[in-house]
Amino acid sequence: AMRSPRGAAALAWASLLLAVRAQLKILAPDSLAREFPDTHGFVYGTTATFGAPMYGERVIGRLVYGESKGGNHCTEDDYDLNLPAADAARDVEKGAEPDLINVVLVRRGGCAFVEKVLVAQSKRAHAVVVVDRETSDADSEDIQKIVMSDNGHGHKVRIPSLLISRFEGQKLVDAARRGNVVVELAWDIPRGQVVVADFWMSSGSRESGEFLERFRYAAETLKYYMQFNPHYHIFSLPEGDASSSHLCAKAVDSCAECVLEVNRYCGTDPDGPGPVTGGDVVNEDLRQLCVWNVTAARASAGGALYS
């Protein structure tokens, strides 16, 4: 599939997003923590792309669950929360930071993640744990591959949220129904890992050049912690299409013995009637890729290639 250079900047930045793993640690009761022997009382999930995760921090809160009246926790009147009197007067929207925050459990389904979290936020939740659908077979590893996406209204959310599997979530719901459950929430950013950035571009694209210039500082800062993979927009045309032959390379610069198929390697014409052709762009793409392949090196066995 071909991607336009205009959208390449957004694509490259999206590739640089670090995977943030959300985790919930059961502090009390001990009997509930023992129900998770393989993870030693931890529950792992995926973090929403909206809201305000407390990156690198740990907060302690109580699990609160309100039974849905049939609306899948999608409206304010669908469920009630029994919040302690001391915290009921505190409003997260006013920036209050109670010692023990309210972590509201809700079920997935019926509406977008953002809507579900906004409802809980309006009911004075400080964080939300979304439990996967009751019919889902996804385990913890599967859940961590799911994206809790923004539906366009995520800017209204001021609290963090995460999604966990129904298998682990049901145990939390049952425990919250029985009594007090205290948990620790953490959003850890992986360290010491190589970030992969794929960039689709063309040497004839002004937008690509401007982005690379702006991106230089970030690339030089990350160096061997970012694997930068350039991809060039090269395409082919029908062999008999003589009208577009100026878009295709007829030879490789500085390589007399290189023989190219007719209309095999073609590029977009960057200046219309100007002197630069699509064939020139292809040769420049090849030159840049050659420079990259020759000069890129690793600082260590586990590091990224950097040039």
Keywords for this entry:
25% helix; 307 residues; 7-stranded mixed β-barrel; elongated; alpha/beta; disordered N terminus; two-stranded parallel ribbon
Strand content: 15-25%
Which spans have pLDDT < 50 for at least 5 consecutive residues? 1-19, 87-93
Largest sheet: 7 strands, mixed, barrel
Number of helices: 8
General form: elongated
The side-by-side strand order for the widest beta sheet comes to 1-2-6-5-4-3-7
**Helical content band:** 25-40%
Q: Rg to the nearest angstrom?
A: 26 Å
Order of helices and strands: HEHEEHEHEHEHEEHEHEE
Describe the structure.
25% of the residues lie in helices and 21% in strands. The protein is α/β, with parallel strands linked by helices. The strands form 3 sheets. A 7-stranded mixed β-barrel has the order 1-2-6-5-4-3-7. A two-stranded parallel sheet has the order 8-9. It has helices at 8-15, 30-33, 85-88, 113-122, 140-143, 166-178, 206-222, 278-295; strands at 21-28, 42-47, 58-65, 101-107, 127-131, 161-164, 182-188, 195-201, 226-232, 297-298, 305-306. The model is unreliable at 1-19 and 87-93 (pLDDT under 50). The longest helix has 18 residues, at 278-295.
